Amino acid sequence: MGEHPSPGPAVAACAEAERIEELEPEAEEQLPAAPEDHWKVLFDQFDPGNTGYISTGKFRSLLESHSSKLDPHKREVLLALADSHADGQICYQDFVSLVAFFLYNGVSLGQFVLQVTHPRYLKNSLVYHPQLRAQAWRYLTYIFMHAGIEHLGLNVVLQLLVGVPLEMVHGATRIGLVYVAGVVAGSLAVSVADMTAPVVGSSGGVYALVSAHLANIVMNWSGMKCQFKLLRMAVALICMSMEFGRAVWLRFHPSAYPPCPHPSFVAHLGGVAVGITLGVVVLRNYEQRLQDQSLWWIFVAMYTVFVLFAVFWNIFAYTLLDLKLPPPP
Predict the structure, then answer these.
(1) Is 268 among the catalytic positions?
(2) Is-catalytic flag, 203?
(3) What is the pLDDT of residues 86-121, one digit of tens each?
C-alpha cells in the first residue's frame, strides 16, 4: 500500500518522445547559422519591407561603416558595381556577390597582403620599418609583402622570365646566393639612403638577378648563341622600368594616411648594385669555381664592408642625426 505502480514501457516511451520534442527547438536555436543565413539577416536589416531589394544609398551606408578598413578606391569600385543597372536598387543575389567576395578581399586579404595604402600593413611582422630595424629578420622577410597586385605581378614575371632559366643553367645555389644578397643589400640600402621609409617587395633580389643577367649578355654578346636574346633583354628592361617608375612615383606620392609613409624604391638600386658586381662574377663562368676567381673575392670584400657599414649606421646614425621617423606600427 502507498506505493505507486511503475509506468509501463509504452507510457515511458511516450514520455521520452515528448521530452525530446520539447528539447528539439532549443537545440535548433543553438546551431550556428549558415553563411547564407548570415547574409540574409544582414540584407533584411536594410530591407524591412521584404521587397527583395535595397537602395544603393543604404548600401553606401554599409560600406561607409567599414570605411576604416576598406581602401577608398575599392569602396568606389563597389559602389559603381552596385549601381551597374542604374536603377538605384540592389537585389539580394548581387548583394551577396558584392559583399561576400569584394568586401572580403578588400578588408581581409588586401589590407594585409596586397594593399599598402592602408596603415595596417605596417603592423605586419614581415615588413621592414625604420622604427623596428633592430628586428633583424625584417631585412629579409620584407620580400613576402608587395605594394599592390601589379607590383607582385611584375616581380613574378621577371622571376619566371629570368630567374628560372638562370637556375637551370647555373644551379639553385649560385642563383639563390645572388638573390639573397640582393634582398639584404636592398633593405640595408634603404636604411642608409632613405631612412624614414619602410620596405616591401622582392625587387631587391629580382633586380640583382636581372641586372646580372643583362650585364653578362652585354659583356658576352658576340659569343652568346641564345635565341631571341635581344627580345628577352627588351622585355626585361621594359618590366624593370615600369616597376621602378611605379615605385618612385609611389614613394613621393602623397599618402592617403599621412602618418603612414609609402615604401621606398632604394631597394631596387641595392639589388642592381649587387647584380653588376657579385652577380656578374657568379654568372660569368659557371664551369669555374667561384673561389678561383680573384674578382669574386674583391666583390665579396666590398659587399662585406657595405654590410658592416650599414650595421654601424643603423646603430649610431639614427640617434646622431635625430631624424623624425614615422610612428611605430
Answers:
(1) yes
(2) yes
(3) 677 777 777 776 665 555 444 444 444 444 555 566
